[in-house]
Amino acid sequence: DEEIAFLENQRSQLSDYMQQTGLRLDALRLIIAA
After folding, report:
1. Which tens digit of pLDDT belongs to each residue from 2-30?
2. Is the Cα dihedral 10, 15, 19, 24 positive or negative?
3. What b/e readout covers 17-27, taking b as 16+ CB neighbours within 10 angstroms?
4. CA distance linking residue 24 with residue 32, whole number of Å
5. How far apart are the first and last CA of the chain?
């Protein structure tokens, strides 16, 4: 079903974005802590 494929794609993009954002937040914390 196209709708399900669309939702799956959205979810994988969101998790990729959240991983990238999480990595940036970790880097910011290290910079702040340094």
Report:
1. 999 999 999 999 999 999 999 999 999 99
2. positive
3. eeeeeeeeeee
4. 12
5. 50
Could you tell me the CA-to-CA distances from 33 to 12, 17, 19 in Å, in that order? 31, 24, 21
- For the record, the structure tokens of 20 come out as 């990238």
Q: Which amino acid is it at 31? A: I
Length of the chain: 34
At residue 1 the predicted structure's pLDDT band, cuts being 50, 70 and 90, is confident
